[in-house]
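#structure-requests
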Amino acid sequence: MVDPKLLRDILFFSDLSDGELDTVSRIVNKKNFKLGDTVFKESEDGASLYIIRKGEVKACKTSPDGELFTLTIMKDGEIFGEMSFLDGRPRSATIVAVSDLETYIMEKSDFETLVDGHPRVIYKLLKNIVFTIHSIVRGMNSRYIEMINYMWGRRR
């Protein structure tokens, strides 16, 4: 359990009322990592959502020869692990701390215990997860268009 007052400053929880924060704080735990620690690896099972309180991580994909390629850097207030949290499938990337890292963690099983008694809280949190995924997809679309334009421009 985390003090609900600490959650107030995190963007992911910013639209929750004090009572809702109190409810959510009961299923949120804190976990710290050191620079260079692997939070989780691509293809591992996992059902935890991580919220970065302080620090930075990189999301990486593993090449066939085992080298890690960085996809993105995430920092204070951002979330990761949302895909496995929602769909129960293995992790899609490796997450590595690029600084000392403080995170809040929500387990899917704990999250699901709130569904019947606190549907409004669930709605708000799921909305914030969807906004995060939406932002990722928009960024990927923009990079894809830039890549296509670059490739077509070189052929001319």
